[in-house]
Amino acid sequence: MILDTVFGWFSVDMGIDLGTCNTLVCVRNEGIVLNEPSVVAVRKGTNIVLNDGEAVGLVAREMLGKTPGSITAIRPLKDGVISDFEITEKMLGYFIRKVHGRGLVRPRVVIAVPSGITAVERRAVIDSAERAGARRVFLVDEPMAAGIGAGLPITEPTASMIVDIGGGTSEVAIMSLADISTCESIRIGGDDFDEALISHLKRTYNLLIGEPRAEQVKIQIGSAAPLEQELTMEIAGRDTISGLPRKIVITSEEIREALREPIAAIIETVMQTLEKAEPELAADLIENGMHLCGGGSLLRGMETILSNATGLKVVHVEDPLSCVARGTSVYLENLELWKDTLDQTGYSWE
Ligand code: ADP
Ligand code: MG
């Protein structure tokens, strides 16, 4: 422990939110120092990362539009599973090196991972971070990190509930006394809203649009509950029959209908978590309500629809996109406090 403190002066210890869409890194006293898409650009058909291993994150996303033919974008965590270990390791290594650059001693790293991932995937994340240069690696469950980052009283004997809707996964957890009491995780998130929209337009209008445009439409006029003033938007795409570019005008009501299935799946997961909760903790939630975070939770009307379904008070945490990363950093500063939880999850303390 003393050695760790001394090392701490010379290393840039960091907390990482390894998200399916975005990776954020938080450093003590500096806040969020990196926020980049979880994307890697490789030469088509290979695992070779372009630009000598530097085509990761923002750089990778920028390269994509420009030379689409020979380059493939890989999102190694797309569905919340590590679908590609090797690429995940390269991505994590790039981010750690980028942040750590000036440190003399290898850093300690806390990584937030979806609570639904398997033991093999956990091990893979630890190995990747170690190979990427970390001196010590600790994993923390994402909802726990979110709760810490949001400043919820998760160490106290009262229930805190987090609903984190990311790109590829949604995590729902009820926590108390610094531990997760009940949690459910599904591999459905904000990206599934985009996909639902793409298939709706294809089915109903024979109109083909890409993922970036679908995301844009979702953010601009998408909703989970009726809006005070419904919106319309023009969408351009390619006609699947004529092959030519075409435009249509679509309403927010129609988009809401198209997004119904993935939203219903998320609500169902929230309901299941509540059904499994300890009665005493469930009772606390009447007072404490539920807290939303993650990019997917920013869809208009998400609070309303969850509040209607559960009867609970629903609010967004402050800065819903960065609370997990901020939580990992706080966790790192207070490792002693979490000792018991670390032991329970099977990771050795020393
Ligand atoms: P992850 O933690 O899995 O990396 P994020 O929490 O970064 O995911 O959320 C990414 C998801 O949030 C994407 O599907 C993105 O389209 C969606 N998103 C971001 N901003 C908004 C918004 N304003 N409205 C609706 N969805 C949003
Ligand atoms: Mg996330």
Give an account of the 3D structure.
This protein is of the alpha/beta class and 350 residues long. It has 14 helices and 15 strands. The chain has helices at 2-10, 50-53, 58-66, 85-100, 119-131, 142-149, 190-205, 211-221, 252-258, 260-276, 279-288, 302-310, 323-333, 339-344; strands at 14-18, 22-27, 31-37, 40-43, 71-74, 108-113, 136-141, 160-165, 170-176, 179-186, 207-208, 232-239, 245-251, 290-293, 314-316. It has a five-stranded mixed beta sheet with strand order 3-2-1-6-7, with helices on both faces. A five-stranded mixed beta sheet has the order 10-9-8-14-15, with helices on both faces. A hairpin with a 3-residue loop joins strand 1 (14-18) and strand 2. The protein is flat, with a radius of gyration of 21 Å. The termini are close together.
